[in-house]
User: What shape does this take?
Amino acid sequence: MWSGSVACRKPRSTATRIATPIEAPFDRPAVASSPPNMRAARPPLQHVADHRGEGSAIPPSHTTRREGTPRRQGGAEVAARCCVMTVVVRSTQSRSSSTLTLACMSDLRPRLRELFGFDDFRPGQEEVVRAAVEGRDTLALMPTGSGKSLTYQLAAMLRPEPTLVLSPLIALMKDQVDQLPTEIAATATFVNSSLDAGETRKRLDDVAAGRTRLLYAAPERLRSSSFAETLRSIGVGLVVIDEVHCVSMWGHDFRPDYLFIRRALETLGEPAVLGMTATATPATATEIATALGREMAVVRTSVVRSNLRYDVQEVAGNEDRLRILVERLRAVGEGSAIVYARSRDSCERVARTLRGHGLRLEHYHAGLDATDRSRVQDDFIAGRIRGVVATTAFGMGIDKPDVRFVCLFNYPDSLESYVQMVGRGGRDEKPSETLLLASPTDAAAVRRFAVGDIPTSDDLREVYRVIREHGGRVDPSQCATGDHDPRVLIGMLEQAGIVRRGYDTGRMMQIELPAVGPGTGAVVDDLLERYRREAQARIERIVSFTESRRCRHAQVAEHFGESFTEPCGACDICDPPRSHATRQAAGSLPDDVAGSIVTAVAGLRWPLGRRSLAAMLRGSVSAPPSARSSGAFGLLEAASDAEVKRWIKELETAGALVEVETDDGFRVLHAVPDAPRPSLARKASRTSSVPKASGPVDDDAAERLRSWRRERSLADSVPAYVLFSDATLRELAATKPLTLSDLAGVKGFGPKRIERYGDEIIALLCP
Assistant: This one.
């Protein structure tokens, strides 16, 4: 409830008690509520360098490098398609506590060679390093594998003050530090929950004494007032925020502890900020700057990874997924593989199955103890195992340059997640392949999950009630409601201006309950509605990506605000796979079916999208009302949803159907007159899916059925296949059902077909 009053502790200093009037539950009208501690509005972003090619396209072969001066980094050529764009803007004030001479800044390349062994920078790296060393607040938007970590590591060695790196991967911090170049590793450390108080104190003392220059910690560590005050006394000069997109409540990976970073920066004395992310749209970039309260210089490099091939393949189910995955893994030559699975159980099952096929892959997830996790990662890095089957969070912490194959075993929940996962491949810039396995039911499952994961106003009201009853001092577990992370719910209340979370005391959260004005209920409703819209939009974007027949690289580029010229030559749309045994057999679409689908599309009064068209052709209740009156409704009732959708895609690939976007933004299909169509009958490799007769075929019955089908198809002006296929004809002639209920057991005979033709067929079989 949003009523009553409460005495609550302020999160900082002494326990001053305040009385907080709370309004009645969810009354209206709405009054916009600004997040606490907001600075005056100002332009948050300054684009100082843009390394994206305008209207660029990947060369015809995805093995070809981009044009530009070859660079050597990580043992691979990295071409620099550097369309550097300098924008004259008001500079962000430098927060560096020292003046760096021009001579020092010109020394970047010698230090790069000395510390990392590279002769030159990759696109965007030098701009980021210079901005960080000069103390300018900077947002680096660079894809996975572009060398983001090098930029802050080099900057930390050039700055006089310590650098704090905030990383969400708590369990992998030790690995991150261990993988640093020797000279940097000697001056780097981490603090996390695996350390006792004495060891944490010792490491912070090393930072204070200047023995440590680079300190890794999780964002939630900043909730400790003693930790923040210690860093303030030390004088941190640069705060690096890894995965900075997590500050966006509307993004794909919102983490509420990122919201506190802005307040912690004040305690730290307003050090310079370097935000790093591979997955920020222009809108998200603006939100990041606003959430951090900083005017940020932006360095953006192209999201297009020309060495990565994007493949999306439709599967019938998990058995099909595993079969295809085994075949693709066996086709991988040199290098290693990462397979992403949604859950820990799925990771273990998939890895076990792959090992049963002679493929050495180990599961890798948060449930492993430190010893097993270290063993698996060491074996993977050293090449003693072929790959890992990992959950998303842990797979993202693996840094191995020669990953040649990345597979998403399950449907991702956003396009950003997809880009992050496939981005682990080809970090050495050599050609690598990625594969997303998608079944017809995946999109619906992800949609259900997204909707079910959205909190309700009752959830937020219950959390608020618990906070109020405990005087603003609560353990997160006390705020648990349903399957929702209580920290996320509290973060949403904070965004609505209803609570303000401060520094933690041990396990306890300290939360202020400020006075709220009228319209709080409306603010909460609006916030939840936007949260719902954003979640659904993320799902629709990834569904559109997988189902569209447009260039995959172009879709990714456009989503992140980059122009791109098709074709890319490095995806299954622009360069259909020809050598994989898993490819659907060419020519699997019968001629009569192709003609029927194209004719049906051409005859529609209102054009339909792919899903609606498939539903109409199958006679599904999910078809839109306008399609149910079409003469083509139920035309392909005997076919499965997967078959119909595959046939539609084949017709698009052949140019017989084309997708267009309406003025309202909907994507619909149109028939193309006189276009060539895919041909011919099914290949023998697909006969395994044909229903098999349970006994010998009665030749006389088969001939009667064949004659009847021919006459009826002419009378109804439909292809013979629409009535029933040859395989179904053989099963009918072998089983000779005596009743309509018997007929229902024959594959290909649904209720509509039985109602329309059942009595006639029974009469034919029982003369």
User: Anything to note?
Assistant: The longest strand covers residues 45-51. Residues 692-765 form a domain with the DNA polymerase; domain 1 fold (CATH 1.10.150.80).
